[in-house]
Every structure is written in C-alpha cells, then in structure tokens.
C-alpha cells in the first residue's frame, strides 16, 4: 500500500501580512500531482488543516477543492483535527462525507474506531486537549502523555484484530525540534508525549511540528508544506511517501518564495555580493550598526524588496534589556513578562495561578467551539 503523509497545511495563514493562499493552492496542485504520479492509495493529513478555528471562506473553499481533487485521483483521504482547528467545525458532516472516501476524525472517542482499507486499519487520533478528556476517560493526570497513552492503548487493543495498523496523531513527541510558528500546547497539561506511546503499530503519521523529522523508522513528522516562520529558513518542506512495510521517502514541495535571515551593518548588506542569492527571499534582517540608520527599511527594500521584519541589535551593546521573543513562547510566559514589565515586579503566586487558569479556560472554550 502506498501512503502519502502530510500535515499542518494551516490554510488561511499569512506570513508577516503576506497572503499565502496562492502558495497554499500551489501546494495542493503539487499534492494532487504526486498522488496521481505515485499511485498513492491513501492520503493522511495529520491535523492543523486550518490556521484557526474560524477560517476565512477562501481557505474553506481551498480545502474543499483539495479534498475533491484528491478523491478524483482514486485515493482515499483521512484527516484529523489539530490544535489550530475547531474539531466540531472540521468534523461537520463527517458521517455523510465518509461515503465519498474522505474520512474525518475529530472526535476523541472515535480514535480507536478504524477506517479499514485493504486490510490496513487507520486510526485517527485528533489533537487531545487534556482537560477535555481527563474526566470522561478517567485519566490519572492531566497531561498529553496520559491522554495519548490511553488512546493508544485502546488502538492497540483493536489493532490486534487487523493485519496492519497505521495511526495519525497531532502531538509534541519528546525529542522533536520545534519552530517559532507552532502554537504552544503546554497550558492544558505537560506537552511532551514519549515516543514509546506509539509502539506496536506499522506507521505513525504525526502532525504539529513544522519541520520534517524522523523520530524512528516508523514514527515521523511530515512538517508543514510551507515555511511559516523565519526559524524554518533552510528547511526542506514536503511530505512522506510511505510504502507500508518497505520504508519511506521524502517528496519535496515547491518553494514559492524562500525565507532567510540576514545580520550585519546596513552598508555591508546593501553592497556585499555575498547576499545576492537572497535578494528574492522573504527576509528577516537584524542590523548591527552602532547607531540606528535612517530610513533603514526603505533602503533595504531597494535591494531586498521582500524584507518583512527588521530589528536593531548594535554591536557590543544594547539600548536596554534584550527584547522578549513572543513568537513560539508559551502564552503564560508572555503574559507574565507583561505583568512584570507593567508592575515593575513579578506576579505573585496567586496572580500567576489565576492567569494560568484564565488561559487554560480560554483554550478549552476554543477547543469546544
């Protein structure tokens, strides 16, 4: 059986205010062509289909087009919801859509009910918010590891009835390398899940981390199809083509516009031939001039027209404490930094607990939307 493993499409996402819908549509074209050319039997989409719970209408239209075109190839498609998706909205009409060969798995209680295709049982474990499943599943603790372990125990019990078993899951497996564009999932419980939780199945298609990663021969992240942060500069994007029982190969995706980083003094960046190769890149630029240059962004864009982010870090000194990095940090840490900055002192223990509870309740409410 031939399986194509993809994830983290984040349809509707922008990149520093640059609309990515055309680039995402180009990825859909590539995906459909790959499925057809490689005679793929099953396409697995391991969560974060959309970038937010209420996606824009053009993102929904692109998703609809992608699923229709994939089905026209003759392949079956299995999707799970990720932490960016609204499970209820993504799962709407799942029972009716199933008849077409597109299988949506967004309900945690269906995680151990497989889609069986040619003697292979596919189990879709959607993103599991620990607070939502802890009491129904009678878990001993509130953590992602406890939730995934429970789901996988049920999966393994059912998989004993089948010749082969494949799992889709959306989680942060211990040892994985994160990037700045992934939303932190630690507020709802300890984030990491041990690799051992996924033992006993033929292949695990993971989503959540945006860089392709091989956690083991049978447990892999496909990563996102596009770079969604400058921390992903240099990553090769694409999907895993898996031949069940024979291994996997990575299929690179088209790059609509590479991303890159530059650091140095403005005059050097504007004149050095070393930087000719990134003139067409989306760029994050850090200037190290002793004094802030005038009209720096305008001058940079004369040579690098796609400069999107600019910061100043003078050589050998800083005009104050280093700015906190917000992107990719846990929401609670960012909020506590804000309290410290405004109040001039750290939050008290009671204030910190109240803040963390508020963030957790907000996340649970979003997950139930």
From TrEMBL:
SbcCD cleaves DNA hairpin structures. These structures can inhibit DNA replication and are intermediates in certain DNA recombination reactions. The complex acts as a 3'->5' double strand exonuclease that can open hairpins. It also has a 5' single-strand endonuclease activity. Heterodimer of SbcC and SbcD. Keywords: DNA recombination, DNA replication, Endonuclease, Exonuclease, Hydrolase, Nuclease. Residues 256-327 form the Nuclease SbcCD subunit D C-terminal domain. It comes from the Bacteria. It comes from Nonomuraea corallina. This is Nuclease SbcCD subunit D. GO terms for molecular function: exonuclease activity. Belongs to the SbcD family. It holds the Pfam family Metallophos. The keyword Repeat does not apply. Residues 1-211 form the Calcineurin-like phosphoesterase domain.
